[in-house]
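Researcher: Quick sanity check before group meeting.
Model: Go ahead. Protein one:
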Amino acid sequence: MSFVKILAPLTGGARDAIVLASAFAAAKPFHAHVDALFVRPDATEAVPFFGDGVSATVVQEIAEAAKVAADGAIKLARATIDTSALSAGARIVNRPVRGETVTVSFREVLGNFADQVTLASRLSDLVVFGPLKEGDRPGLTEAFEATLLETGRPVLLSANPAPSSFCKKIALAWNESVASAHAVTAALPFLKCAENVEILCVSRSKDEPIDSAELKAYLAMHGVSASERIADAGSRIVGDVLLDEALKGGAGLLVAGGYGHSRLREMFFSGVTRHVVSHAGMPLFLVH
């Protein structure tokens, strides 16, 4: 079991360097291919926002301005690929290919960013996003959530700066839920090459104790030896405790189930996933 094709959505912005560096670090243990995807906005989608009385001349100006902006963003994205590939020792190719080293290819599609990223994610083993913060442009956050919730693909949410490896110490956020179990099985390629794996359980004094014995036995069958640590959340937000304890333990990656409850409940009750995503100071491996 390994990652063969890793999707890296690019925007032509400063965050592309983090996305690519993280994708290359994830690809390195498996000699995987990085599929760098740029979504060119469809200028015609913006026209309805200007009302019915927009003249043909204005429509043309909007289309031309969008094309100029997209051309500039593509140029920056390609330059970032060249620099990042050289730094990572990755080989630039014209199309996805599996080789003896990490490879990367660039492709451009037209349409809505979130829709196109979600579509491309379906046939990818892992999707890499840069760090997300509150107030990010809607398309980026929408693409992340749609990929996580609708495709079933694991998502790697990087941190700044991007780590050079994800196979040192890994923390597993475990609460016996289906989402956390899916995260464990999806992360097995990383777990098998990790130097150290720690099961991290967060509980409150009123809660039933979390049992990780079955998880340990499952991991052992896959050749993964794991230790366990239980943290008492007290009155703190569980997401804060997970992040703090993972960092204190020296983990370079936190594996967790993403949006374990319904999306609606997450929105109204400040779910753990949403909090962890917007406050993470370390890379996250998430699966819904």
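Researcher: Fine. The other one?
Model: Protein two, sequence then structure:
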Amino acid sequence: MDFKHFDTIIDARTPSEFAEDHVPGAVSAPVLDDAQRAEVGTLYKQVSPFEAKKLGAALIARNVARHVEELWKQKEKGWKPLVYCWRGGKRSGAMAHILREIGWDAQTLPGGYKAYRRWVVQELEKKPGDLEYIVVHGPTGSGKSRLLAALAKAGGQVLDLEALAAHRGSVLGGLPDRPQPSQKMFESLLLKEISALERDRPVYVEGESKKIGQLQVPEALIARMRASPCLRLDTDTETRVTLLLQEYEFFLKNPGSLYQQLDCLVSLHGREKIADWKALATAGAWREFVARLLVEHYDPAYRRSSHRNFARLPEARAVRIASADEAAFAAAAKALLARAPVAA
């Protein structure tokens, strides 16, 4: 699984298999598309393996020829690709054979995607324990994601789980222009990020719950985070409202989507309170709407979950966020990195 020794990682599986999960950075070059694979499989079961192989060979030859012409025609002789399919058998083997006959040093991944997937699961049980974390806390809208971005820009080590999960972690946290990846793809991306981090420097990470949207954070990582030292952002309510209005601008332009999300909270707050919130949004009273949502929903939920799940939060160092400006987050990040790391 040491992929850096190859110039290109080629996923020879179908587009739907690739969409669910793949080696990060891999190129999709299916030897059979979804419809073709279904056609060959049906022929194999209903007619004969021999007829299925004849059809499959013709389709694979045409598809690989197209990939050579469209994707790899300009590659030099020294190009070294790694090809994988589901089990590392016929599909990747057929493509690698053709590439080797051209003159390229094409290799296949032993065991294919199934072996890769087992490796990801095993690594995510071990690697999170190799790192030291500093967990950034603060109620919704306090600027945790902004601080992580500022820390990364200033040279700190950051693990941004919400960016990997394409979700901000709250009831309104879905990103309108970016669906969440599958659980498997999230874990592939997470392992890639963790593997690139240095052991001798602390890793700043946001204090998440076990789920980010529909995705589960691996148990080994969440356990390690919950045992780690913490920072607590001190951000006043007006600044939090401003930050949230910036982050959730989509809902200001599409209140219908906002109302659907608020309806998910009826069981917690009752229809009357939800109707009050909707009335504020309908009237365009956005700052009052956000302030009430913070006080009546987000802040109580944060107090219940954070202190229950993060034992070291009471001893957290406070970090003042002076305003919603980027300069305020840059200054906070610079001050944090200039100080000695929090003791693990």
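Researcher: One line on it for the slide.
Model: The radius of gyration is 25 Å.
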